[in-house]
Every structure is written in C-alpha cells, then in structure tokens.
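cron nightly-structures :: item 1 of 1
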Amino acid sequence: MKQISPENEEVLHLFIITAATIGAVITTVFSLTHGIFEIFPFLYILPIILSVYFFPKRAVLFSLGVSLTYIGMIYLYDFTNPEHIAIATAWFAIFITIGVVSSSYATRLIDEQMRIRSILVNSQDGIFCFDLTTLQVLGANAKFAQWLRYDRSELVGKDLSKTWTGSSERDQFIADIRNGPQNLETEGVFQSRDGAQHRFIVSAVLVSRNRVLCSAIDMTGSKVADEEIKKTLEELEVQVRARTEHLEKINAQLQAEILERRRVTKTILTPEPGSKKDLEDEE
C-alpha cells in the first residue's frame, strides 16, 4: 500500500477538521431554526478534539475560533432567550477549556517524545526495539544499525534471530523478560550484514505492550583485546618455562663440571703407591 506524503496527509487532516466543523455549523443552524437546543453543542467537541490530535500546537486558536462561531450563531438565531444565552456562554467556556487543556497536554507529550527520540538517536549506545510476540525488530538507532552494517529502515521488520544469532542467550533473555522484566542484562553474539560477529551486552530498558526497548554495548573490541592479552600472557609463560628449563640444564652441566674438576684435582693431589713421597711418609 502506497504511503501518503506529508503534504497530502496534512491536507487530508485539514479536510477532516473542516468537514467536522461545517457539519457542526449546519446542524446548529438546523437545530436553532427548528427549536432543538439539546444536541448540537456536543458536535463542536469533535472538531476541537481532531484539531488537538492533528495540530496540537494550533489547537488553542482553532478552539477559540470554533467557540466564537458557536456562541455567535446562538446570538444570531436565539438572542432573545436569556436561558439559551447563558447555556451557550457555559458551552463557550467548556470548549475553550477543552482546547487549552488538551492542546497543552498533547504538546507536552510531543516535546517529551522528541526529547526521548533525540536522546536515542544521539546515544553512543546501540538502541533497538523488538516485538515480544513476533520477535520482529520494530526500530533501531543509527549507532546500532552502523555496528551491524545496515540502514535503519532495513532492520525494521527483520526477525531478531537474523541479527542476534546467539540462540541460547537470546532465548534465555526473552524468557526472563516474559517472567519479569527487571534489571535484565545478557551478553549475546550478533551478526552484521557482512557476516562479522559482534559481541554485545544487551540490557532491557523498557517493556510495554509487548514491545521491548533494549540498549546494546559493543564489547567486540574489548573481547579481542582480552584475547590478545591472554594470548600474550600464554606466550610469555611458555617463554619463561622454556628459559627456566634452559637455565636448569645449564645449572646441571655446571654442577657436573664442578664435580669432575674436584675429582681430577683429588686424583692429581693423591700420591701413587711406591712413590718417593709415599716412602717418606712411611718413615
């Protein structure tokens, strides 16, 4: 299904609001000219709510315009009845209150949504969201998509298992979320578009309406560094062991040479039987 462009969507919203307003005005004229005074005021609530939903920042002005239109028509068609004028004035205040309160609340929600979206987009951590029922990725920020060599739009609708390839960690993480989403964190293996393996620390940030918002920290570089350090230490240990064995061999050779020299020296210094020195010693 082809999506409506933002310009056409805004025109459609204006058309809906205008149609609801014209319908309320026509109904007001018909009601006032036929002596019906109970129903038509409620019809003005619909265009006010629609304006708050579609254009919250301009809803206050629209509510004021609709309210003035309503009370103006009452004065035009029924200005001789003080009771109807008083009721119309009360409705005028109600319309303004609905517009102001609803617009203020909607504007605050939009600002908060924009703030959160800005934080997620500019975060140095990877952020992704998936559906807990279908396990499809619902969205991701630029950092997460960059790590996996995808465009953000390409990740939307992709099955979580296509990127999170570590099935044991993934299944356990999802089971823990379904049992109770409090302080959940795990370490998982993800696969990028080019087939490279990345190890992320994944934390469940928010779980609501079967939607799970997660943060991911890339630990691939740290793992590689740890493996390099471990490999270096193992190599050093092998070298130390080999050096120790070499020194032990040298030490054994030196001890053997010392014993040999002592034996030769003793042999040289000991007189042979029948020699002159031996006879002198006997006298």
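cron nightly-structures :: done
Strands lie at 126-131, 137-140, 185-191, 197-208, 211-218.
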